[in-house]
């Protein structure tokens, strides 16, 4: 047998020479830093009276009169994106995903970031509790979006109508009430160990919200008195049925009550559990529902839930490029892409599902049969890591799509508070149309909204740092929320 050309010692010497070369840079990301910033972002979206420990100090109090037309307190909560409206539908979804992040991956978070995550959840749930505080009524929105979008002004200066949009039974709001039930149930699990009293309050109000959703079935945007206020912004495009199943599934997981198990068993087909399984976001919960319910199907070996697991398996197979059933579109640089703008909302939510499902498969020593290939937890995590690293800078433009992370990130995001001088630097009010000067300015935003994930690049990986291009440059709470759990996983497992 001939001796190898290089000995093991020689190969080791060559590797060390390359690694120690001044031209070599270690690849990888600081996922812990990204996690901290991802959570911090939510402080920049706060509405209401800000606490003394507010870290995003360029923000100040806003929306302090919210709810006065109904003689009720509707202060607090989050602005959904770069505007100054509190949309209940995406806020509830954001809360559910923040809570799910803590439930699945909170034990991997540094203690300080777990605490900050719970603070971020509570800022939302304190508000959501107010929205369901009156019998047979749910408050679904605060702020006239048409008037708000006509202006470019700081939340602290708002002088547009703070219209309150409420749905009273027998008016229908199964989507918002169902998602609110899911949010409160999930949050009750997140708080169970640290604040059991608050957790029980959340759970009981989640049960009430679900009863409202299920008793009076229909979409909230079908109500003539609020339709013009919620559409086309957060209109229910995909139906309310998925939110009923989603709310019931979360109440089942939080309460262990058999009635909710029966609900998702008995109503799966009639409420379309097997429809549109390749979508997950504020309007369509199908893929997330299937992954969530699959946990119990896998761990409890409940045969009557196998259809949910089958749908979850099918969804995972669509994401694996080497699978014969792969049909999710990717950009040339490797980012999950779905048409319609604000694409990172799909990338972050789907990445979260990849990691959550990998978690469930690993705990039950299971795999997914994708026809020509068998997929296990490691494969799903590789797909997830590719998305995370792309978002943090490993992409054709070399840009981090998280504001404040890395050396090159968006400077001109579509966000009123970030793009206008803060009240500390400019105490005088900036009126509705006076903000146009700042909107049209080529200068970077004066206030850095640290941790904000923007809408992201188009299908060709192209991103122009353009404030006016809101589909690409506007951050939203529901882009960030699932990314909290994703980053918690990779902060603890940087190699994937």
TrEMBL record:
UniProt signal peptide: 1-27
Superkingdom, natural source: Eukaryota
Coiled coil: none
Keyword Signal: yes
UniProt keyword annotations, A-Z: Carbohydrate metabolism, Cellulose degradation, Glycosidase, Hydrolase, Polysaccharide degradation, Signal
Enzyme class: hydrolase
One Gene Ontology biological process: cellulose catabolic process
Annotated active site: 414, 465, 474
Pfam hit, one: Glyco_hydro_9
Domain Glycoside hydrolase family: 31-487
EC number, as in UniProt: 3.2.1.4
Catalyzed reaction equations: Endohydrolysis of (1->4)-beta-D-glucosidic linkages in cellulose, lichenin and cereal beta-D-glucans
Annotated GO MF terms: cellulase activity
UniProt record similarity statement: Belongs to the glycosyl hydrolase 9 (cellulase E) family.
Protein name: Endoglucanase
Organism in which the protein naturally occurs: Cucumis melo var. makuwa (Oriental melon)
């Amino acid at each position: 047998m001939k001796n190898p050309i290089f000995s093991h010692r020689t190969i080791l010497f060559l590797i060390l020479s390359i690694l120690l070369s001044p031209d070599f840079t270690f690849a990888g990301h600081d996922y812990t830093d990204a996690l901290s910033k991802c959570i911090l972002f939510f402080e920049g979206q706060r509405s209401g009276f800000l606490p003394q420990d507010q870290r995003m100090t360029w923000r100040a109090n806003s929306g302090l009169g919210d709810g006065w037309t109904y003689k009720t307190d509707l202060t607090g909560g989050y602005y959904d994106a770069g505007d100054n409206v509190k949309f209940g539908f995406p806020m509830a979804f954001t809360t559910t995903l923040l809570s799910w992040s803590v439930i699945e991956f909170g034990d991997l978070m540094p203690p300080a970031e777990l605490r900050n995550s719970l603070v971020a959840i509570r800022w939302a749930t304190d508000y959501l509790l107010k929205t369901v505080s009156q019998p047979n009524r749910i408050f679904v929105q605060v702020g006239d979006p048409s008037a708000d979008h006509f202006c470019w002004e700081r939340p602290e200066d708002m002088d547009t109508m703070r219209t309150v949009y409420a749905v009273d039974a027998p008016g229908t709001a199964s989507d918002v009430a169902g998602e609110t039930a899911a949010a409160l149930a999930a949050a009750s699990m997140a708080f169970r160990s640290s604040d059991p009293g608050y957790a029980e309050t959340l759970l009981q109000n989640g049960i009430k919200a679900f009863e409202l959703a299920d008793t009076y079935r229909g979409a909230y945007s079908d109500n003539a008195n609020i339709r013009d206020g919620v559409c086309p912004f957060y209109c229910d495009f995909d139906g309310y049925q998925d939110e009923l199943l989603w709310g019931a599934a979360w109440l089942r997981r939080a309460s262990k009550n058999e009635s909710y198990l029966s609900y998702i068993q008995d109503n799966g087909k009639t409420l379309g559990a097997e429809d549109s399984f390749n979508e997950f976001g504020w309007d369509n919960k199908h893929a997330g529902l299937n992954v969530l319910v699959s946990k119990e199907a896998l761990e409890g070996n409940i045969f009557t839930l196998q259809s949910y697991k089958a749908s979850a398996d099918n969804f995972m197979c669509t994401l694996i490029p080497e699978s014969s059933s792969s049909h999710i579109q990717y950009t040339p640089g490797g980012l999950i892409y779905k048409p319609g703008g604000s694409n990172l909302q799909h990338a972050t939510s789907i990445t979260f599902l990849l990691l959550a499902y990998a978690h469930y498969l690993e705990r039950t020593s299971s795999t997914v049969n994708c026809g020509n290939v068998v997929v296990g937890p490691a494969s799903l995590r590789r797909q997830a890591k590719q998305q995370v690293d792309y978002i943090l800078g490993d992409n054709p433009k070399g840009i981090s799509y998280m504001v404040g992370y890395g050396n090159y990130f968006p400077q001109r995001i579509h966000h009123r508070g970030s793009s206008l001088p803060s009240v500390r630097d400019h105490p005088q009010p900036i009126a509705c149309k006076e903000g146009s000067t700042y909107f049209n300015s080529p200068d970077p935003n004066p206030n850095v909204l640290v941790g904000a994930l923007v809408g992201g690049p188009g299908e060709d990986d192209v991103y122009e740092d353009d404030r006016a291009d809101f589909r690409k440059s506007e951050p939203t709470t529901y882009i960030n929320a699932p990314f909290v759990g994703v980053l918690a996983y990779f902060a603890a497992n940087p190699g994937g």
